[in-house]
Amino acid sequence: MSYPTNINQQKFKNKKSFLDFAYSAPYKYKNYYIPKRNSTQKRLISQPTAELKFVQKDVINQLSAFLPIHNCAYAYVKNRNIKDNAELHRHSNYVLKLDFKHFFHSIRPKILFNQLEHHQIKLSEIDQTILSFIFFWREKKDSPLKLSIGAPSSPVLSNFIMYRFDEMLNQLCEKHQCIYSRYADDITISSKYHFYDLNFPQHVQNLLDQEFQGKIKLNTQKTKYLTRKHRRFVTGITLTNDAKLSIGRQQKRLLSAKIHHFKINKLNDEQQILSLKGQLAFAFYIQPELKVQFSRKYGEELLHKIMSD
């Protein structure tokens, strides 16, 4: 990498001004919390300043051509989404769900540079230092540098860092006639055949220890074994016993109730209507036949009114 990694030089007067900016970059974040999905806990989001965000985007756009992303990765990848991820597993009878513990915050500069070396990408010490400060966030002065949830560069870096892990785990799954996919920190392994006695969680943690020296770990409290006897889901999407995708009965009832409230003028808040519109668009994308069902129940005209308001 050469100064300043071909960043738009209009942003900086000279090399010194760029270096001064880089060294202070880990502190250029605004922190706030958002609720976690299906949890009472909150997730810490660290949002870089507009100027740092510009630099992060510029640098990651230049580096991304050299950073491979595995085909098993479905988050933050163009033309892949949670529906594509769920589609992979819809014919499986057995599903294993695994989750990483504090995924982004577990990724440190050394992990990135080790993975770059594995891909024959070598950087000088000064380049490593600059990239560490540009891409990684420091919560406090004495805190370690770590990947932030909120930086535009973090999704690409996290997917690249997991490339070798994804490849090794995918090979292991193929060996045992299983399907593997990863959506950010959400791992899904499934099969038509019973495979739970193979102790995949331990194999996964062994691979993580081997690749990341124990820095990235599974959240064992979130490990789930799912079968046809119970609700099977992948990234929030239900797998039905007839090998289709569904938003689930509970979500369907909730949407039906909201449509009814809209019909009788009990749902008239603009934000609530906008939220319903988004929820319906998502539901119809995951489960297209729902649009037909709701149209029969409430009429096409009412649905059109909701979706067009």
UniProtKB/TrEMBL annotation:
It catalyses: DNA(n) + a 2'-deoxyribonucleoside 5'-triphosphate = DNA(n+1) + diphosphate. CDD domains: RT_Bac_retron_II. It is an enzyme of class 2 (transferase). It comes from the Bacteria. The keyword Nucleotidyltransferase applies. One of its GO terms (biological process) is defense response to virus. Belongs to the bacterial reverse transcriptase family. NCBIfam families: retron_St85_RT (NF038233). This is RNA-directed DNA polymerase.
